[in-house]
Amino acid sequence: MRIPKSLCFLGVMAGLGAGAFFTRDRWIVLIASRTTPSEAVEEAATPIPEASVLKLSPQARKNLGLVAKAAKPQTYWRTIQVPGAIVDRPGRSDRGVTAPAVGAVVQIHAFPGDTVKPGDRLFTLRLFSEYLQNTQSELFKATRETLLVKEQKVRLADAAKNGAIPESRIVELDNQLRRQSAAIQAYRQDLLTRGITPSQIDGVTEGKFVSTIEVVAPPPVADVKREPEIEQTAFPLVDQPAAGPVYEVQELKVDLGQQVQAGQLLSMLSNHHSLYIEGHAFKQEAPFLERATQNDWPIQVEFAEDDQAHWPSLEQSFQIRHLANSIDPTSRTFDFFIPLTNQSRGYEKEGQTFLVWRFRPGQRVRLHVPVEELKDVLVLPSDAVVREGPEAYVFRQNGDLFNRIAVHVLYEDRLHVVLANDDSITPGLYLAQNAAASLNRVLKAQAANGVRADVHVHADGTVHGAH
To answer: 53-77+374-465 has which fold?
Structure first.
């Protein structure tokens, strides 16, 4: 009997199907290991290179506030940052006014905030000093005694010439006049030191005793080491000529009607033209500060809450004057001091002149002390460099294009980044001085979207192919 071909074909196919079913654990694994998924197909495609160039429209550059400058090699000082504050300069900033004798405060002429010049009245005291009254009495007696001796000498002069009296009598009168003159000079000097004026002392010699005394602002302290520019231009006022030093009444120490003793503090006067910047450093930073002090290296000072727009530029160099040789037991820091010449301006109100100082005691500062000189380096603002792990990048501007360049960072602080002057950057190339992080984010978004490097970037950060 002859079997049809169609039945044979079906039998073969059924046998192959059954064999495949019973051996499926083997051939499925083999096929899976040789099958390439869709992801592998995509990876096999040509990868898009990492974006390193982007194009910014003029509007985008304005929105980012981009600034580009030519890279120029220069010398940069590596610094350490030290906190500090502005303080009064002992012996220069504050002056105490004391009572010259025992008395009572009967009038106060200058109050806190008022400005006074040397010689201006501050207080009127009614004298209760027995010593001062005795001094005035003795001066009056000595003056009268001198007049009597002089009159007696005139009367006896002719008698001495005629031999009626011995010459020794005239010599005795001359000695008595010299003693009285010395006593009068001592009494006058004593009264001058007590604050009594020469005209008042002349009145005492005529029997007009002083019962009240005026306490005035003291004269400037004579100091041969004082800086000439401070002495000549001290405390200039706005729209007024410089007329010598001006004091501000800082604090009153007595009340009206209060009895005071000789030498008691009446008020505190201040002038903040000559101040100190007091830095606070740790002991391990002492070698850096000592070297900066010995070499007169300039210190960069950042003043907190300084209104630079409404004051003249501060044209002075800051050097450390001296280092303290004691450590604060609480903060474990030692102090160092930098002279500061202050700026002031005045305004008139109700007939009084008031002072406004640019820098004030207690104001915080940040000091940058140089410790190492770096030569032939490129210095950029901190916003000009962006980091990705160990890599650091800057952006070179060429028209509308910005090319990201890897750089070697030698040193960086809060304000600046110092780059090595190697082959990565050619001096003279224009580099973006800010917004490096924003530019890098645009590049990363571009790379994530698979966009070509020569793309167009809108002001809002969206990108698409150039058109």
So the answer is: 2.40.420
